[in-house]
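=== RUN LOG ===
request id: a7f3
mode: sequence -> structure
chains: 1
length: 404
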Amino acid sequence: MNKKTVRDIDVNGKKVLVRVDFNVPLSGKDPNDDITVTDDTRIRAALPTLNHLLDNGAALILCSHLGRPSSPADTQFSMAPVAARLSELLNRPVQTAANVVGADVTAAAVNLQPGDVLLLENTRFHPGEKKNDADLAQQLANLADLYVNDAFGSAHRAHASTEGVAKAIQAKGGTAVAGFLMEKELQALGTAVSNPPHPYVAIMGGAKISDKIKLIENLLDTAAKILIGGGMANTFIRAQGHETGTSLVEAEALPEAKRLLNMAGDRLVLPVDFVVTDKFDADAEAETVAANSIPADKMALDIGPKSLETFKAALQGAKMVVWNGPMGVFEFPRFAVGTNQLAQLLAAQVEDGTEVIIGGGDSAAAVTKAGLAAKMSHISTGGGASLELLEGKTLPGIAALDDK
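=== RESULT ===
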């Protein structure tokens, strides 16, 4: 990674604006309820950076988005529950601001002393955030001396708090650097993109092939095998000319699926059997059928046991594996077997020396749900960002940071 990090800057006595990813699950949506954080994984992930800055004499101003509010009236997305949990984890008070920017925020920032922590209100409460509004970026930059981006999950978005503010800080002579979490993400995923150890195997799942066409193309330049599962496998099966019943299929993506099959040859490994059912329901009766024998009135909701054996064989000897997307409808226990068993298989490979990277999003949720998160080499905190990085795209929130 050729970007400066918090190790490269002197923060003693400085006010540091830190873009964190505190987009965490909450206990409810009614603003009148006592809303709490139900999963603090992303908050904990930021602690090494925050503690480093605090230990070295900085005052912190933190900003993050939370959920998808349509306006500041959506107070169920307030950062207050996050501040409460962060205060517990840091073991120090965390001040909160009622707004993202404004006179009250400026006054609070001016009064900060080394060791103080101020958490701004949800950045998406401000209409300029997603527009990368220059005025909002400048107001944020005016609060601090330095900028740290530790929100990999938002690095693919050119927003005011991710790209605009970095440039505004730099314009006034300050530095914009990466936090430890950002550094860790870029090292893990950057290796997969630019210099993966071989044999390198990629596993792609999830619902849509259209979201991952560019990714699969990019992986064909580096990966020995690409294993396909989840809903996107149905589109490939249909592209081979087989019946897929009532399974999710992207008809408009069939030409691309055929092109990728022709391009990849036997390097694209598809399921050989599926767990099918007649309705999308957690308690639906299920049976296992061959991939080329899906009944016309059934839908595939998971890969079958023979597919797992096929995948296991393809994974043998791999030095690096990147997995993005579940193998089935893992939210339903009956159709989570393929995803869970694949996670167990990969955890065992980590013990044998394989580097296994989980590409965020639903894959990370599935591995966590299976209780195997601690056994993986790296779990990305950003689904969309990890996808775009693996596609070879430049992420604006990273490009804006100072080079070493």
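=== NOTES ===
The chain has a mean pLDDT of 93.
The domain at 6-181 is CATH 3.40.50.1260 (Rossmann fold).
=== END ===
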